[in-house]
Amino acid sequence: MDPSILKEVRDLFDRAEQESDPQRKVAQLEDALDLLLEISSSEEGSQLSPSDQSLVRNLRRSNTRRLLSQLVAMRNVQFDVWFGYLSLLIFRLGPEMDALLKEDENLRNAYLAFVRLWGPDAVDVLQNALASSKGEL
Q1: Tens of pLDDT, residues 88-117
Q2: Domain boundaries, the chain
Q3: What's the predicted TM-score (pTM) here?
Q4: Among 20, 32, 27, which Cα is nearest to 56's?
C-alpha cells in the first residue's frame, strides 16, 4: 500500500477525532472512509497483501471505537448531524459497530444515550433501510 495514501487516511481520522464541530467531524470521517474504500476496492486493493488488508480492517475498527467513545460528549446536536452520525455508523461502519457494541458495555451505553437524543424510531428506519438494501426484509 502506498505510504502516502495511508498517511492521508490516518491524518483524516486524526483531524476528525480532534474536530470539535460535529458536522465537520462527520465529513472528515466520511472522507477517510471513502479513501479506505477506494484503496480496498481499486485494482490495487484486490492485490493488497494480507497485512495491508488487516491494516485497513484495524483502521476501520479502531476509528469506529474512537467515534463511539466520543458520542458521550455529543448532547445538543441538531437532528441532521445526529442522523449523519447514525447513518455513518449503521451504513458505513455497521459490522465494526455491531462487534464493538457486543464487546464493550461502555460503548454500548454511549451509543444508546446518543440514540435517545432523537429517538429510537429514526434508528429503526435506518436499520430497516439497511436490511432492505441487503435483501434481508
Answers
A1: 998 899 999 999 999 999 999 998 888 888
A2: 3-133
A3: 0.79
A4: 32
